[in-house]
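Notebook B, p. 112. Complex prediction, attempt 2.
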Amino acid sequence: MKIKLVAHTPGVEAMVATSMLTTTSGSLPSRIHDRLVDSPEKVGEIVSRLEVQHGNVLEHNRLIWVVEATGDEVLEAMLDTRFLHFTRLGDDRWLMSGNLRTVVEYAQSKGSAFTRELAGSVRDLAPMVHMFMRRGHT
Amino acid sequence: MRARLLAYTPIASLAGCRGELTLRELLPHMGYTFAVEKISRVCSHQLVRHRVASFSQQSQRYIKVKRLSERVVTPPSVEATGEPVFLEFVEKASEAYQLLVDQGVPKEDARFVLPNAAETSLLMTMDGRSLFHFFGLRCCNRAQWEIRALADAMLGEARTAEPEVFREAGPYCYQLGYCPEGRFTCGRMQEAVEKYRA
């Protein structure tokens, strides 16, 4: 099973931080987002408090992969988590999408080559969350 | 009330798949995150019935409600009466809330006296297919006025960002070419179709 991240919503961790502050700060979400979107240090500081938050703050993004896998391998992933969406592209090629929460929870619930590759695919777009996953937090 | 599209997966980012999949097949893979601001709790209750979406809403458990009478949504039908009872009730609710908080009642319990008119703001994320369904139901003339106004504002944002994707989005009569509301139809399908075509 091979996966390649081909698209995602921009500013994934800035949106995680926006979501965290929306629930607790009283500021308007668009203002919070505008303040954070160009401030990676502030985003990092907020996301570092992630472990005490609900998982729903990880849902405001969309990640899209092209997957090379057999039908049985895709069925196994679909049975493991109902939050990944698949569309067949061709023989053993699939378009797969989901959000960061699905990646985190799937990777934490099952240690397989696929979940490790899935977790690794978000390293660059969500470095703090990826670090937490490796440490076993969130 | 305000809606702003904060982030989305541009259809152009999946250009490599356009030859293999139609736009409709790509929609479930696309994601759209909106800031939805200054709506009533009535409206947010209706929003969360779209349960495939993701929500992060201002929490009355953590955020103290201040100046409630300045932060309520008043329905136009209530305003039209000129009747003061609505704001009088809001003032009473505000006083009761403040009194309870001052007496040490946690915000999570004091909020039980707050009205549905209280303003709230939230983040909402939906995939493209669910967003088409949301517009189909909530842009409809039969939808309640506040969520219909919100759906129209969201559709405006989506069409500005991705005109090719959302050109055919709107109430179901516009999407389908017929009204699926049966005997509950508003009877103004042509008017609705022309509005969303424009």
